[in-house]
Every structure is written in structure tokens, then in C-alpha cells.
């Protein structure tokens, strides 16, 4: 295992991951197009370099980008470098086809490429509670496990390239549905005359709870959604990917499709900049018990 890694994409999630790598004893070379992101990363010990190729001058290179177009551009750029002895770990949530399009030019240049999306939001990332679904060559996975453990509570090898994102898309259904159901339960509790904070304390960690209720239920109980773990932009970006993947394999996903409508309602009500726990506020409005 190497103690030197590159990191491309220092946004909401990437910056939290890079911070944990630094705290785990890794020398992290980071690149991002945003000056604010570069400065914030530098403040936590990331060595900021001038471009993506400079960041990729390391045996392991993490990539955490916001769009498939950005991923393709970075992959095309890095494919111009000799890839022997280097492994690119792609952490994003994109379609299998987009992941493959990024992998192909890199593989031709000798890069090892892993499809390794992570489950969890920024809050969980800062607490090192992410889960990584790593797919690709088993030997490449073994080579990066030490780095993954610096920011993940759990990391798994899930098989050939592409299995990582398939696992993530299926898991995202649970994430979104659990969050929406947590809001539904919280609003029912309030309409029943229960104190929301006391209700959260009673249910969190019990057999009725979920990770979403444990983490976001506290935000719902407090009615405070400013501590952003993940705003609406990410789950709404992922919604077409999940729908298209389900359609491609002929699987109905009616509960997910219903739950995502509350996210769309939050967006329509001007709440999209807040944490996704704000679906609780949408349901309060529906139930006629909206708090100030």
C-alpha cells in the first residue's frame, strides 16, 4: 500500500473524503476547478496542485466529480499519461455506460480502473461512516483497500467492473425511501401530540429505526435542515439513473417512484438547497402542522 494518493474533485463529498485521507496519514495531492474548494481542502492539509495530471501523479488516484461530462473529460486527459502502476478509483454515481466510457481510454493506456461508488452523505463522510462498493479487478481492489479504510466504515468487493454502481443504485432506493418514511413517521408523531425530539430519542437505535432515521430524524425533530449532508440536487440527479436501470432489467420500483415525489415537491417549494431531511417540512405542510 502507498501513503501517497491523488484526489480529483474536492466538492461537498470529495472534500470530506480527502480530509479523512490526510488524517489517516496519507499525502493527498488534490485538484478542483473551484478556488473555494481548493482553499478549503488546503486548510485541512491537502496539497493543492495545478491540474488533474499533477494530481494523478500518484499510484492511487481518487476521482469524485459532479457530472458524467466532467468524468469523461478527466478520463480523456489522464489517458494521455502512462497508466502502468496507477489505479484510478471512480467514486461517483453515474450510469454503467458512462463508467464504461471513462474506463475504456484509461485501460488502453495501462491504468487500472475501479468502479467504486460510496453510500452515505457528507455528514457520514466526515464521521468515516461511508460504505464503498468496489468493482473491477480484484488485485486492484486489494491494492486500494488501505486507502478506502481511511474514510469508510465498510468497504466491499462486489465483482466485475460495473457491479459497484449497480449496487449503489439499488441501495439508493433504500436511502431515499427510508428518508421519506422517516419524515412521514415524524409528522404523524407530531400530529399525535408527541414531542418530536422525544419521539426521535425513543425510536433511534431501536428495531423500528433505520440509519436515515437515526441521522436525519434528529434534524427533522429539531426542524433544522441547514447542516447539509446532501441536498436535493444529488438524489434528483440520481432518480433518472435509477429509473433507467430498473427499466433496463424490467424491475418495477413503485415505492421509490412515490417517495421521490416528495423530493420533487421540496424542490418546487424552494427547499432544494437544504438537506434532504427537509421532506419532513413538505409533509408538515400536507398535514397542516407546519412548524415556524
TrEMBL record:
Source lineage: Bacteria, Pseudomonadati, Pseudomonadota, Alphaproteobacteria, Hyphomicrobiales
SUPFAM superfamilies: 6-phosphogluconate dehydrogenase C-terminal domain-like, NAD(P)-binding Rossmann-fold domains
Native species: Salinarimonas ramus
Gene: garR
Domain of life: Bacteria
Keywords: NAD, Oxidoreductase
Pfam families according to UniProt: NAD_binding_11 (PF14833), NAD_binding_2 (PF03446)
InterPro entries (alphabetical): 6-PGluconate_DH-like_C_sf, 6PGD_dom2, 6PGDH_NADP-bd, HIBADH-like_NADP-bd, HIBADH-related, NAD(P)-bd_dom_sf
Record-annotated 6-phosphogluconate dehydrogenase NADP-binding domain positions: 4-159
Stated name of the protein: 2-hydroxy-3-oxopropionate reductase
Domain spans labelled 3-hydroxyisobutyrate dehydrogenase-like NAD-binding: 162-282
Entries under PANTHER family matching the protein: 3-HYDROXYISOBUTYRATE DEHYDROGENASE-LIKE 1, MITOCHONDRIAL-RELATED
Active site annotation, chain numbering: 168
GO MF annotation list: NAD binding; NADP binding; oxidoreductase activity
Coiled-coil regions, chain positions: none
Amino acid at each position: 500500500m502507498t501513503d501517497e494518493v491523488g484526489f480529483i474533485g474536492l466538492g461537498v463529498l470529495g472534500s470530506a473524503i480527502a480530509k479523512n485521507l490526510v488524517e489517516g496519514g496519507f499525502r493527498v495531492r488534490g485538484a478542483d476547478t473551484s478556488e473555494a474548494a481548493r482553499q478549503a481542502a488546503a486548510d485541512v492539509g491537502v496539497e493543492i496542485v495545478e491540474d488533474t495530471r499533477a494530481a494523478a501523479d500518484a499510484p492511487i488516484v481518487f476521482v469524485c466529480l459532479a457530472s458524467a461530462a466532467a468524468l469523461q473529460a478527466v478520463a480523456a486527459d489522464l489517458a494521455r499519461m502512462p497508466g502502468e502502476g496507477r489505479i484510478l478509483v471512480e467514486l461517483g454515481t453515474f450510469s454503467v455506460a458512462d463508467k464504461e466510457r471513462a474506463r475504456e481510454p484509461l485501460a488502453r493506456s495501462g491504468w487500472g480502473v475501479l468502479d467504486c461508488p460510496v453510500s452515505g452523505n457528507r455528514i457520514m463522510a466526515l464521521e468515516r461512516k461511508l460504505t464503498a462498493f468496489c468493482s473491477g479487478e480484484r488485485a486492484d481492489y486489494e491494492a486500494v483497500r488501505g486507502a478506502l479504510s481511511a474514510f469508510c466504515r465498510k468497504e466491499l468487493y462486489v465483482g466485475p467492473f460495473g457491479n459497484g454502481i449497480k449496487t449503489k443504485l439499488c441501495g439508493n432506493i433504500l436511502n431515499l425511501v427510508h428518508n421519506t418514511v422517516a419524515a412521514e413517521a415524524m409528522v404523524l408523531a407530531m400530529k399525535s401530540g408527541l414531542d418530536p425530539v422525544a419521539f426521535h430519542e425513543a425510536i433511534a437505535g431501536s428495531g423500528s429505526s433505520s440509519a436515515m432515521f437515526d441521522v436525519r430524524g434528529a434534524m427533522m425533530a429539531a426542524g433544522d435542515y441547514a447542516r447539509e449532508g446532501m441536498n436535493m440536487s444529488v438524489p434528483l440527479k440520481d432518480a433518472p439513473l435509477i429509473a433507467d436501470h430498473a427499466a433496463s432489467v424490467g424491475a418495477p420500483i413503485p415505492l421509490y417512484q412515490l417517495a421521490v415525489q416528495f423530493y420533487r415537491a421540496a424542490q418546487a417549494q424552494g427547499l432544494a438547497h437544504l438537506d434532504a431531511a427537509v421532506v419532513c417540512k413538505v409533509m408538515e405542510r400536507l398535514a397542516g402542522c407546519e412548524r415556524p
